[in-house]
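Re: How this chain folds, sequence and tokenised backbone to follow
Notation: Tokens come from a learned vocabulary of local backbone shapes, not from coordinates.
Start of record: The labelled sequence and token lines come straight after this line.
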Amino acid sequence: MSEAAAKAFELYRADVGNDEGAGEWFEVTQEQVNQFADVTHDHQFIHVDPERAKDTPFGGTIAHGFLTLSMLTHLAAGASSAPPDPGKFEGLVMGINYGFNKVRFVSPVKVGSRIRARAVTTNAELKGNSVEVTRSFTVEIEGEERPALVAEWVTRSVYA
């Protein structure tokens, strides 16, 4: 086990249970939805055809659930209300996306809506020269009671 990993682990463990706050609002546009549809080859009309989508219960196009999930990379960067402790980066070699324990698409994100992420660190584990951190994310939709999604995201920080 590396000394840097052990020190970082203590810092991450101290974060468990703390609400990190919410990031800035981010508007989901039709252009983004169309680009995602092109990349994923998912051109279902509910995402890319505003005229046909008007006749659905949503009244217009909605973002792909996986687009909203993919936006966590961007949304998570602004989810913390305080700058990270520099000690978490001492001896850091790389960070990797380890996966998700749980993902639920709670409510559709209508095109033109604004979303943001709120995060809470729920677990930290020391795994050799790595620290595995689980954070619970809620992607909020501006003006809506129910969130767009909730997800438990697991990342690993690898130390020298």
